[in-house]
């Protein structure tokens, strides 16, 4: 009754939270009432989905996703299973071990306890005292053992084992697995620090979609709308896809050849595109066919609106309609001789030229006054009749422009 209620409610995304032993039974019943189709997605909370035989559901196209704590392909897990199998074989038993999460956690817990006890015994002397269950006496090394278990870091069947200061396990990794034609496959990971990380590439996802579509028959809904879909004029009675022609028909035909699927064209019963009745909350036309899963896709000159995008997914449009603003494309003008002045305004250039001339003239005047800028022209004549200075007006201007351009000069003021 519960599954039928879910089916009647048109819900397609289901979270299945039950014991591992009941997962197969629930999925089997869902398959019997038609809830294991391409339109349904299941998120299973059990960490032991890989221990269940899911061969009956591999080819249905249903999106089944789960989490996994133990990776059966991990070399440490394979070695542990091998050791268990040999141990049981020595006792004359033949057991098919399944790496359940509870078993792996128990295995890691025993190893963690043994390692912590060994480290405690190495660091201090452990005294064994008899204790009674009827008294409140505690083992004196109990808290020390617990602290050692918190700080121990090791690798087990459930990957890295590490605890935080409160004693909760941290930095553990869950594998995200999905059911496909090849069985369960790993598609990503989750951890408490970085969240979800999908490892499958876009190319792998596209390849998987193409494999699912191979030789599959899709129901394509459309309406009669020239030149996209029209009935052929023929003296013979045409049936099936051959009775239609037009751009939309040619488009779906080419897509089917590329992806390798088959298709059947069905006209919408009411011949409408699809509008939403806000009073009843129902849709009509092609949108209704898609929502009620009587068609897999629609191909027509269907306008993309906000309401329609809330209930169905659209591909990239092949035609755009709307209002556009046209303007004249600017013509590139030939560069002017003084185009290098364009980055700065005329006022800035005037200020720079004024400052340049002012600094040059001021330097020229100061060089005339200071005795340090009148050296002896000939070092051999200590008492010359005439002194010379390097800071002429032209040299002052040259020094100012060199300093402005950060290129330096052959002479410097003293």
From TrEMBL:
Keyword field: Glycoprotein, Ion channel, Ion transport, Ligand-gated ion channel, Membrane, Postsynaptic cell membrane, Receptor, Synapse, Transmembrane, Transmembrane helix, Transport
GO MF terms held by the record: ligand-gated monoatomic ion channel activity
TM region(s), chain numbering: 348-367
Protein's name according to its UniProt entry: Ionotropic glutamate receptor L-glutamate and glycine-binding domain-containing protein
Phylogenetic classification of the source organism: Eukaryota, Metazoa, Ecdysozoa, Arthropoda, Hexapoda
Family: Belongs to the glutamate-gated ion channel (TC 1.A.10.1) family.
Xref: Pfam families: ANF_receptor, Lig_chan, Lig_chan-Glu_bd
GO cellular component terms given for this protein: postsynaptic membrane
Membrane topology: Multi-pass membrane protein
Ionotropic glutamate receptor L-glutamate and glycine-binding domain ranges (all copies): 227-292
Compartments, record wording: Membrane; Postsynaptic cell membrane
Domain (Ionotropic glutamate receptor C-terminal): residue spans on this chain: 217-414
């Amino acid at each position: 009754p519960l599954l039928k209620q879910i089916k009647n409610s048109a819900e397609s995304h289901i979270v299945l939270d039950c014991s591992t032993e009941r997962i197969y039974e629930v999925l089997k019943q869902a398959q019997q009432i038609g809830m294991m189709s391409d339109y349904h997605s299941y998120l299973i909370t059990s960490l032991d989905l890989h221990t269940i035989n899911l061969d009956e559901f591999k080819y249905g196209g249903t999106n089944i996703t789960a989490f996994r704590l133990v990776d059966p392909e991990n070399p440490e897990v394979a070695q542990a299973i091998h050791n268990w199998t040999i141990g049981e074989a020595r006792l004359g038993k033949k057991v098919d071990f399944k790496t359940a999460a509870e078993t792996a956690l128990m295995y890691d817990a025993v190893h963690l306890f043994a390692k912590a006890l060994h480290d405690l015994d190495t660091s201090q002397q452990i005294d064994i005292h008899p204790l009674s269950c009827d008294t409140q006496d505690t083992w004196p090394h109990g808290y020390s053992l617990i602290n050692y278990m918190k700080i121990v870091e090791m690798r087990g069947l459930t990957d890295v084992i590490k605890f935080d200061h409160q004693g909760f396990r941290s930095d553990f990794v869950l594998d995200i697995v999905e059911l496909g034609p090849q069985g369960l496959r790993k598609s990503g990971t989750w951890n408490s620090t970085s969240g979800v990380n999908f490892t499958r590439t876009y190319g792998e996802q596209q390849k998987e979609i193409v494999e699912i579509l191979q030789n599959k028959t899709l129901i394509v809904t459309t309406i009669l709308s020239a030149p996209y879909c029209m009935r052929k004029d023929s003296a013979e009675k045409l049936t099936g896809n051959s009775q239609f022609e037009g751009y939309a028909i040619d488009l779906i035909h080419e897509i089917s050849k590329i992806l390798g699927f088959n298709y059947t064209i069905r006209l919408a019963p009411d011949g409408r595109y699809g509008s939403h009745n806000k009073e009843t909350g129902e849709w009509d036309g092609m949108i209704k066919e898609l929502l009620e899963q009587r068609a897999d896709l629609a191909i027509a000159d269907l306008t993309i609106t906000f309401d329609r995008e809330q209930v169905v997914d659209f591909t990239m449009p092949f035609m755009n309609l709307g209002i556009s603003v046209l303007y004249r494309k600017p013509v590139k003008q030939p560069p002017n001789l003084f185009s290098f002045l364009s980055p700065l305004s005329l006022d800035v250039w005037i200020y720079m030229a004024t400052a340049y001339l002012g600094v040059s003239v001021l330097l020229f005047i100061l060089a005339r006054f200071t005795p340090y800028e009148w050296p002896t022209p000939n070092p051999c004549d200590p008492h010359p009749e005439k002194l010379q200075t390097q800071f002429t007006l032209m040299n002052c201007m040259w020094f100012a422009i060199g300093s402005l351009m950060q290129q330096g000069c052959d002479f410097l003021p003293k």
